[in-house]
Specification:
Elements lengths: L7 E5 L4 H12 L4 E6 L2 H11 L5 E5 L5 H15 L4 E4 L15 H29 L3 E5 L12 H23 L5 E7 L20 H13 L4 E4 L6 H7 L2 H11 L14
Parallel strand pairs: 1-2, 1-4, 2-3, 4-5, 5-6, 6-7
Helix pairs in contact: 1-6, 3-4, 4-5
The protein binds nicotinamide-adenine-dinucleotide.
Nicotinamide-adenine-dinucleotide (NAD) binds next to α1.
Length: about 270
């Protein structure tokens, strides 16, 4: 079991949304040190100021898509905060609800590098010490969009499919090596944090940030390999395997309404 109590927890994107809530909860669960990595200095400052009374918290401004900056920041974090025991790769962006032909290369590259490449680079750095100590946990926040194709968010979907494939491959590698370092892949449905403001959800209720954050920390502490939130999303792959694509598109796309979810998306400004 990977307990949060007594450990150093690094959360990317930890100054907003579920990253921020998980940071607070990690301190409440007795984390030795909370490390927040984020690109938004103002949010880092306000988060650190708010959490100070709950335990040790340190914030670093870093663009996780900049691999050189990530390497330097990881070295500085280790020097100032000690061994990183738990990494939660949570920083993520969605840039628009444009169809793919209207996207631009900059947004495609940003989405892939922040959502998919950065978690790999950060895990690569953290794993060196974790494997040597035979202790640690990497938790990757993917998305239900990493299991179901969805119009008007194709680059985001691509980035989250990438995270799921990589993260689960890493889990298997560590298991084959009989390592005690664990990996959890999390695939939540839409969460009411502001990131996906305006989305339509006809069938599944939009998730609340607090209980979703709690479920993710529980998944880490219980060493869950994979967690879809809500649980029903675990059956998506089964349905994809059983139903012909045209029928799957009708059931999930039209009836459940997933394929029109992004129609009125406004997102963060
Ligand atoms: N909100 C949802 O509906 C939803 C659903 C499924 C999965 N997710 C995933 O959960 C994670 C958190 O989402 P959220 O809703 O809390 O989002 P959020 O927008 O509230 O928080 C994301 C944080 O990431 C930071 N960030 C963005 N780019 C960065 C960069 N280049 N370097 C460092 N930090 C950067 C932002 O400053 C922000 O603090 C994301 O990976 C997201 O894809 C969200």
């Amino acid at each position: 079991m990977t307990k949060i109590k007594g450990n150093c927890v690094l959360i990317t994107g930890g100054a907003s949304g579920i990253g921020r809530i998980m940071g607070r909860m990690a301190l409440e669960r007795g984390a030795r040190q909370l490390v927040i990595w984020d690109i938004n200095q103002e949010s880092i400052n306000s988060t650190c100021a708010e959490f100070e009374s709950k335990g040790n918290v340190k914030g670093y401004r870093v663009d996780v898509s900049d691999s050189k900056a990530v390497t330097e920041c990881f070295q500085q974090t280790s020097k100032e905060c000690g061994d990183v025991d738990i990494v939660i790769n949570c920083a993520g962006i969605v840039t628009s609800n444009k169809t793919f032909d209207k996207q631009n290369m900059r947004d495609i590259e940003r989405t892939m590098s922040i959502n998919a490449v950065a978690p790999m680079n950060i895990a690569l750095l953290a794993l060196q010490g974790m494997i040597a100590r035979d202790k640690g946990h990497i938790c990757n926040i993917a998305s239900a969009a990493g299991m179901i194709s969805n119009p008007k968010m194709a680059p985001y979907v691509a980035s989250k499919w990438a995270v799921i494939g990589w993260s689960d491959s890493l889990r298997i590698e560590l298991k084959q090596a009989k390592s005690k370092v664990r990996v959890s892949t999390i695939a939540p449905y839409f969460i009411n944090t502001g990131m996906f403001d305006g989305v339509n959800s006809r069938f599944f209720p939009i998730l609340k940030p607090e209980p979703t954050s709690r479920k993710i920390l529980d998944a880490i502490e219980k060493n869950k390999n994979f967690k879809g939130i809500p649980f029903g999303f675990h059956f998506i792959r089964l349905c994809q395997g059983l139903l012909p694509t045209a029928l799957f598109d009708i059931v999930f796309g039209k009836w459940v309404g997933i394929f029109s979810a992004m129609d009125n998306f406004t997102g963060r400004k």
